[in-house]
Write a structure and sequence with these properties.
This protein is an alpha/beta fold. Helix content is 46%, strand content 12%. It contains eleven helices and seven strands. Helix 9 links the parallel strand 6 and strand 7.
């Protein structure tokens, strides 16, 4: 199954819906309970849905086309980009408008929005990366604005009674403080990157932890800690994801990731937890079904 995909089909050219259809058709053959297309910008929900519709409609096999339609779900949220942090009030208005438009009666994916996010706090400084995070950009106003934007989305999720997909990188304390301030504990700590102590604090509040391709290329000096963490997370708090097109797992590290690569993450984590891939698959399916009310 595919617990998450960032493989936004608007990244494909207009005449390349066949590529999206090929990926979706292969996914559908595995009969997953969920494939989640995650939002990162305030205005991307409707365009993502439009391109997803084109890709689904290009699946030639009627059974797999129907299965792809059933498995797809969407989230909508604002990743903590500096420009959107600074313009957070307007961005939140746009996000709500997109959600309202997408959930109107008669819309194709009207009942497919199942989460808010990805949203959160990111203090990983690497200006050379595509996200261009620089500590120099984070003066007091941007720092507080980032927290406020996250809190606003937690509050929206609480109002809509939807789970939250939380992006948290090098920012555990701020992330945890915002969650405690809102008092809403329902969702996923996406691409989990902290240790066991932090995991316990999230899990004790009811959060799920999601692991992606990065766990497969943990440094040798850190692998023992990673293995301990993967064994520590209780069954009912565990999720897997691809984060495609990023974080392709070993043996595909460095390539463009797709949801089809989730199998490598299942292989790696099931081995570390000393269970079969089928057992792990059922654990994740049950958690998805409960969390997203499938």
């Amino acid at each position: 199954m595919y617990s998450d995909t960032h493989f936004h089909f608007q990244n494909l050219t207009d005449d390349d819906a066949e590529k999206g259809a090929e990926i979706l058709e292969t996914m559908a053959a595995d009969k997953p309970v969920l494939a989640l297309d995650i939002g990162v910008r305030c205005d991307d929900l409707l365009s993502r849905q439009a391109h997803m519709a084109d890709s689904i409609d290009n699946i030639s096999n009627p059974e797999k086309r129907a299965r792809a339609e059933r498995m797809i779900r969407f989230s909508a949220g604002i990743w903590p980009d500096v420009d959107e942090i600074k313009d957070r009030e307007n961005c939140m208005e746009t996000l709500v408008e997109q959600i309202e438009d997408s959930t109107e009666d008669g819309e194709r994916f009207a009942k497919k929005l199942c989460a808010i996010g990805e949203c959160g706090i990111d203090h990983h400084w690497n200006p050379s990366n595509p996200d261009g995070r620089s500590e120099d950009d984070f003066d007091a106003s941007v720092y507080e604005g980032e927290r406020e934007l996250f809190i606003m989305q937690l509050q929206l999720a609480k109002k809509m009674q939807l789970p939250v997909i939380v992006h948290s990188r090098d920012a555990f304390d701020d992330t945890f403080d915002c969650i405690k301030e809102v008092g809403y504990d329902c969702g996923i700590i996406h691409c989990y990157s902290y240790g066991i102590n932090e995991a316990k604090k999230f899990i004790d509040r009811g959060w799920h932890l999601a692991f992606g391709g990065a766990v497969t290329y943990t440094k040798k000096s850190k692998m023992e800690e990673m293995e301990e963490l993967l064994r520590y997370v209780p069954d009912d708090a565990l999720l897997l994801e691809t984060d495609s097109p990023y974080l392709a797992p070993v043996p595909l590290r460095g390539s463009v990731n797709t949801p089809l690569n989730i199998r490598y993450i299942y292989e790696f984590i099931s081995a570390k937890r000393n269970i079969t891939m089928q057992q792990l698959n059922r654990i994740v399916e049950k958690n998805c079904e409960k969390l997203f009310k499938l």
